[in-house]
Amino acid sequence: MARKAVVLFNLGGPDQLASVEPFLFNLFNDPAIIRLPNPIRYLIAKLISKRRGPIAREIYKSIGGKSPLLEQTGHQADALTATLSELPDDYKVFVCMRYWHPRASETVLEVKDFDPDEVILLPLYPQFSTTTTGSSVTEWQKIAKNADLDVKTTTVCCYPEDVGFSAAYADLIAKELVKIEGDTPKLLFSAHGLPKKIVDGGDPYPWQVEKSVNGILKELGRDDLDYQICYQSRVGPVEWIGPSTETEIELAGKAGQSLMVIPVAFVSEHSETLVELDLEYAEIARKTGVPSYYRVPTVTTHPKFINGLKSLIKNRHDGGMKSACGAKICPASATGCAQFSKAVI
């Protein structure tokens, strides 16, 4: 029986208020986020984390003084472990966070102690971006090499249209829609934004977000629904991809249209959903005259999503960075796609 380590990648978040500033520093010191050489990047990361620290601490205070992301990822790991027990090999699931603990330096050693025959890297980012999966895999490869973790490694780089992911969100949307009496709300598929220059540089993320929305709508089977893809969480003075979620909410208010927001790029609840969507954007909706504002929960441990992850692992295409189908799915213009450019990883 082969021993296989499954590593779930996620962003991570502060585990206490004192961790907020160092967490932000780790985030902005990532060369995939601030694409400048050191020491310039280091100094900018210090400045941003210092300035944003007090604001971010207030955000985390409103949700219990820490991020729930690690706990939720742990639940996902437990659910995945249970369903992987149905497969013939010996699977063990590990969690690896990019900007807070457990980081790659910790998880690599845990995986090495497990002594697997194969390592399967599975990002909890359905859509590939150089800033998320690309960054996480880069760090893992560097640390694994330094730790002499020399074992066959396969990465599922993206699964934007995976039927498990799509069906889970379709089910959650359908359950919210049946609760609503009167006019059907417009669906806002809100994803975390990116600076426009990163997308112009070939990052395939918005293209993959569109694929995810198409997959969800196909599973939902409702041709009568009005919908819009939009982007949230803009930071700093640079131009970001749009349209922004905030702008779409304001337009709906002017049109007297109710809204249902779906966090299409997130699979766990965290500050961007619990604070930004549930509190800040809900307040914008109220002030701008949106008649009703609904928010669909993330897929977290939805059985269809977890079974989808199991299928991704079971049906993986061995070796290197591969999409769920094992082929290049991004257009040729997406030069940042992991399967077009080895420079990404």
Furnish the topology, listing elements before pairings.
Blueprint: E1 3-10, H1 20-28, H2 40-61, H3 69-84, E2 90-97, H4 104-114, E3 118-123, H5 133-146, E4 152-158, H6 163-177, E5 186-192, H7 196-200, H8 205-220, E6 227-232, H9 245-255, E7 259-262, H10 271-288, E8 293-295, H11 303-314, E9 320-323
Parallel strand pairs: 1-2, 1-3, 3-4, 4-9, 5-6, 5-7, 7-8
Helix pairs in contact: 1-2, 3-11, 4-5, 6-8, 6-11, 9-10
Outline of the structure:
The chain is α/β, with parallel strands linked by helices. The chain has helices spanning 20-28, 40-61, 69-84, 104-114, 133-146, 163-177, 196-200, 205-220, 245-255, 271-288, 303-314; strands at residues 3-10, 90-97, 118-123, 152-158, 186-192, 227-232, 259-262, 293-295, 320-323.
Here the CATH topology of the largest domain equals: Rossmann fold
Compute the gyration radius: what is it?
20 Å
**What is the topology, as strand order, of the major beta sheet?**
2-1-3-4-9
| Name of the level-1 CATH class of the largest domain | Alpha Beta
- Range of strand content: 15-25%
- Could you name the ranges where pLDDT drops below 50 across 5 or more consecutive residues? 341-345
Q: Percent of residues in helical segments?
A: 40-55%
Report the end-to-end length measured between terminal Cα atoms.
Answer: 31 Å
Label the CATH architecture of the largest domain: 3-Layer(aba) Sandwich
Structural class: alpha/beta
Order of helices and strands: EHHHEHEHEHEHHEHEHEHE
